[in-house]
Specification:
The structure holds two protein chains of two kinds.
Chain A lengths: L15 E12 L5 E12 L3 E5 L6 H8 L7 E6 L2 E2 L5 H11 E4 L11 H7 L8 H14 L15 H13 L5 E5 L7 H16 L3 E6 L2 H4 L4 E6 L2 E3 L8 H4 L2
Parallel strand pairs in A: 3-8, 3-9, 6-7, 7-8
Antiparallel strand pairs in A: 1-2, 1-4, 4-5, 9-10
Chain B lengths: L16 H13 L2 H35 L2 H4 L1 E6 L26 H6 L4 E9 L7 E2 L13 E5 L1 H7 L2 E5 L4 H5 L4 E5 H7 L9 E4 L2 E11 L9 E5 H8 L10 E6 L4 H12 L7 E4 L4 H41 L1 H9 L4 H38 L7 H4 L2 H22 L2 H6 L2
The chains are: A alpha/beta, B alpha+beta.
Chain lengths: ~250, ~425
């Protein structure tokens, strides 16, 4: 399947949110380290994919490439049909801010700002008008079920609640792709279940979700599991193989 | 949008100035204690700068206003050569001393100058050990320690003596070479002359002089308070030309207020257009130049200290901002993940640093003004602050903040988002 490369035709949505075509990452050193062997991976719009593997397997490298926080040393990466090679800092930042929502293991909420203000940080750089920010932040918090804690400081929130705020922050710009890095790594099982339920509901709502985790319990909730080991990607089984079922 | 072709649709990321301001304000008030400590260097530096300039102008204003009116209206000329090219100018030349350079009509010549109140020639009469007595039979040591001065009527007028008894020297006495004498009250007491109604006389080396007046105070030439004054023409005729050197003839001029500088320039030409360099002119210091001398002395020292404070302040800000960059590396990573460009990160930390400097500058300026007002109040002076130096003072803080922020801002912009985000 070919993907339109011209910007004009982006209005027509490509089928794939993520397309890795022979993407590899080598860290240059005296003895070069191959963190990721040339990899092909296609993630359809609206997919729910877990990338799993032990630590040091190349998960983070893959995450950083997917999140445009790092550039591959070979191959092409298309995000929503846009070739991300040779993009300027400005365009990469734009793409990252508008097309990807990040959820991190340690939440990364600013401690001196309320939940709503933390969500609003995501709107600082994308020319959204100051007037609408608070409104959008509140509706994002409502979506994650935290409207009642919008004015609370992160220090007064539980871990699960903090992660929900982080999810709201990831959602507020309607990014399309939700990139979750060990989203339950710092949470107890109850809070984990809550956050995973939330992620699942977002998937049902049409978001493309990629979860990176070493926890098989988290991975098995995804529609599709990809395993990475020593920088090589394998896909042991493919459940719910019908793409139509996922693309809603 | 931008002229450059962008392969990504939608508007480019932007960090509006208003958002920038609110973000860096938030960054500063998150740690108020640290921010205040960081400010101290800049506050002291800018404060010292404003205070030094303010105190200097205030003190200078004070000096100008207290500047002695007496000194400011006195000009004196001393005869440096002691030789006269034209013997007619100085009359007879009975001994070996050179004739004074002052012309005989010196008084009238300076009197014609604008701004001169009175002026005339005087010198110490060159008698090595004069005997001043009250009569042929009196004690020859009676007048020991008294000095005899020769002075023109104009010189006596310029001394502004307080006449206790009798009259002062007038032009008649001088022009007609009268043997008259003015006694200081000290000399009068020493000689036992108390009343003038009997027209007493004193004898200088057996030559009689009629005492016409006794003066108790003088505004200028205080040395005459321990002496007697005879007309300069009489002195020339009796005792010859004044000694050259330190006892050479001098001219004392009383000027109007503000005229001293001008008179000092014009007098040598009025006296001797043919030889104006014959006189060493001493005029009161120009208040303007005095002001500058004071300003120079004081300020170079304290401005140096202010500079050191600012330097310390700059390092303080740089250090704090750098620590803050390291501490907030995760926040930096987060902002990058949320779509901030590297330059947005750099600008944010540069702005925080500049804002710190500006606040320090404002506080320092206030502190400096309060110091100047306090000192002026305590000394009952009039506080003088130059707007041109005071109003831009907070900007010094801004400049210091910007310079101090450059390196930390570059470090912040270089922070790798992925490392920062995974570091917790």
């Amino acid at each position: 399947m070919t993907v339109n490369e011209s910007t004009e035709e982006l209005g027509a949505h490509p089928d794939f949110a993520v397309e890795l075509d022979g993407v590899g990452r080598v860290y240059s050193a005296a003895a070069p380290v191959i963190a990721l062997h040339p990899t092909d991976l296609k993630i359809r719009m609206g997919d729910y994919v877990a990338i799993t593997g032990p630590s040091g397997s190349g998960k983070s490298t893959l995450l950083n490439i997917l999140g445009l926080l790092d550039q591959p040393t070979e191959g092409t990466y298309r995000l929503n049909g846009i070739d991300t090679a040779h993009l300027s800092d400005r365009d990469v930042s734009k793409l990252r801010g508008s097309h990807i929502g990040f959820v991190f293991q340690s939440f990364h909420l600013l401690p001196h700002r309320t939940a709503a203000e933390n969500v609003m940080i995501a709107q600082l750089y994308n020319r959204s008008s100051r007037k609408n920010r608070r409104e959008k932040a509140y509706s994002a918090l409502e979506r994650v079920g935290l409207a009642h804690r919008a004015d609370a400081l992160p220090t007064t929130l539980s871990g699960g609640e903090q992660q929900r705020v982080a999810v709201a922050r990831a959602l507020v710009n309607s990014p399309g792709l939700l990139l979750c890095d060990e989203p339950t790594g710092n949470l107890d099982s109850t809070a984990s279940a809550g956050v995973l339920d939330l992620i699942e509901s977002l998937y049902s709502g049409g978001y493309t979700v990629v979860v990176i985790t070493h926890d098989p319990g988290v991975a098995e909730r995804a529609e599709r599991v990809v395993t990475i080991h020593d920088g090589r990607l394998t896909e042991p089984e493919r459940r719910a193989a019908e793409p139509e079922a996922a693309a809603r | 949008m931008s002229a450059r072709r962008s392969s990504v649709p939608g508007p480019a990321p932007r960090f509006s100035p208003r958002d920038l301001l609110s973000e860096c304000t938030a960054g500063l008030i998150q740690r108020p204690g640290r921010t205040i400590l960081t400010l101290i260097g800049v506050v002291l530096g800018v404060g010292a700068f404003v205070a030094v300039l303010g105190l200097t102008t205030t003190a200078t204003g004070q000096i100008s206003s207290q500047f002695s009116i007496l000194e400011a209206t006195t000009v004196s000329l001393s005869d440096t050569v002691g030789t006269s090219a034209d013997p007619n100018l100085a009359g007879e030349n009975p001994n070996t001393n050179p004739a004074p350079s002052f012309p005989v009509d010196a008084d009238q010549r300076v009197q014609r100058l604008n701004g001169v109140v009175a002026g005339g020639v005087w010198w110490q009469v060159p008698l090595s050990n004069p005997q001043i007595t009250t009569g042929p039979a009196s004690d020859p040591t009676l007048g020991d320690g008294l000095t005899i001065y020769a002075a023109s009527a104009g010189a006596v007028a310029a001394m502004q003596p307080t006449i206790q008894e009798g009259v002062t020297l007038d032009t008649y006495d001088v022009n007609s070479t009268q043997h008259v004498v003015l006694l200081s009250s000290t000399a009068a007491n020493q000689l036992g002359v108390h009343r003038l109604d009997a027209q007493p006389a004193i004898f200088i080396n057996s030559v009689p002089y009629t005492v016409i007046g006794i003066y108790s105070q003088v505004q200028r030439l205080p040395q005459t308070l321990l002496g007697v004054i005879i007309p300069d023409t009489t002195a020339l005729a009796e005792y010859g030309n004044p000694l050259p050197g330190t006892e050479a003839a001098q001219m004392l001029i009383q000027t109007k207020i503000g005229a001293a500088q001008l008179v000092a320039k014009q007098a040598p030409y009025a006296l001797r257009p043919d030889f104006p360099t014959a006189f060493a002119v001493s005029a009161p210091p120009d208040p303007e130049s005095l002001k500058q001398a004071v300003t120079g002395d004081l300020s170079s020292l304290f401005l140096g200290l202010a500079g050191i404070c600012l330097l310390i302040g700059a390092f303080g800000i740089a250090n704090t901002t750098l620590v803050s960059v390291l501490e907030r590396s995760r926040e930096i990573g987060l902002r990058r993940a949320l779509g901030a460009r590297t330059r947005h990160i750099g600008v944010q930390f540069l702005a925080e640093s500049a804002l710190t400097g500006t606040i320090g500058g404002l506080l320092g300026t206030s502190l400096g003004i309060v110091t100047v007002l306090g000192v002026a109040e305590a000394r009952h002076w009039t506080a003088v602050l130059q707007p041109a130096a005071t109003l831009p003072a907070p900007l010094i803080g801004t400049v210091v903040g910007v310079l101090a922020g450059v390196y930390p801002a570059l470090q912040a912009a270089r922070t790798q988002p992925l490392k920062a985000l995974r570091s917790g």
